[in-house]
Design goal:
Keywords: Metal-binding, Zinc, Zinc-finger. The protein has about 110 residues and is an all-alpha fold. About 65% of the residues lie in helices and about 0% in strands. The chain folds into two domains: about 70 residues; about 30 residues, no CATH class. The radius of gyration is 18 Å and the shape is elongated. The model has no long low-confidence stretch (mean pLDDT about 80). The structure holds zinc ion.
Length: about 110
């Protein structure tokens, strides 16, 4: 099918790998900022959160992003990237552009918020 809508898997993979590097770099910076032992007790961590809340939140987001990127890279390898996991239809190109790690088409994502 040469209709111009087939996802360019090589480009997607490059994009995801570049994004991954970006996050890893950011995480490394955050870890440097958090260069203190993190309290295991959440109640004790409240005051720490005042100082490190943003960095900790970024860290958690980064971990989720990395997991999503790894999953997307795995789907590229398996040849299922850009295919909705709910209905099996191709995910809209614009949606994939905006959210390269998405696993659902616009309709399915909207169906359950
Ligand atoms: Zn779908």
């Amino acid at each position: 099918m040469k209709d111009g809508t087939t996802p360019d898997r090589t480009r997607d993979e490059e994009r995801l790998l570049a994004w991954r590097d970006e996050i890893l770099e950011r995480e490394t910076r955050i870890e440097a900022e958090l260069d203190q032992p993190v309290s295991a007790d959440f109640s004790d961590a409240v005051t720490e959160r005042e100082t490190h809340g943003v960095a900790e939140r970024l860290g958690a987001i980064g971990m989720r992003e990395l997991a999503a990127i790894d999953a997307a890279l795995e789907r590229i390898r398996l040849g299922t990237y850009g295919i909705c996991r709910e209905c099996g239809d191709p995910i809209e190109a614009a949606r994939l552009n905006a959210m390269p790690t998405t696993t659902e088409c616009l309709e399915c994502a909207g169906a359950h918020g």
